[in-house]
């Protein structure tokens, strides 16, 4: 059963001023090739996709959240999900605590 409190928030095409305010260009970068990835978020992550297209399937749910290049995305702490990457991802990201990045295993 999916936990409805663990919602992914997608902001389409945030303004340049918001991106500057968040100082996104100073955040670390991460990327991946197309494929399916099992991820568990041990900390809240905010990321800004420079390129790519992703469908995220929260564990225990048939529904998905889709986002891509130009989107600012907040992923809640505690979310276990599958990332189905159809277009290679390049993103800036930031975790809200000193927790390590999400653990990952390729299917």
TrEMBL record:
Protein's UniProt name: (S)-ureidoglycine aminohydrolase cupin domain-containing protein
The family database entries (Gene3D superfamilies) matched by this protein are listed as: Jelly Rolls (2.60.120.10)
| Organismal lineage | Eukaryota, Viridiplantae, Streptophyta, Embryophyta, Tracheophyta
Q: Which CDD domains match?
A: cupin_TM1112-like
Q: Which PANTHER family match?
A: OS04G0445200 PROTEIN, RMLC-LIKE CUPINS SUPERFAMILY PROTEIN
Superkingdom of the organism of origin: Eukaryota
Q: Where is the (S)-ureidoglycine aminohydrolase cupin domain?
A: 20-93
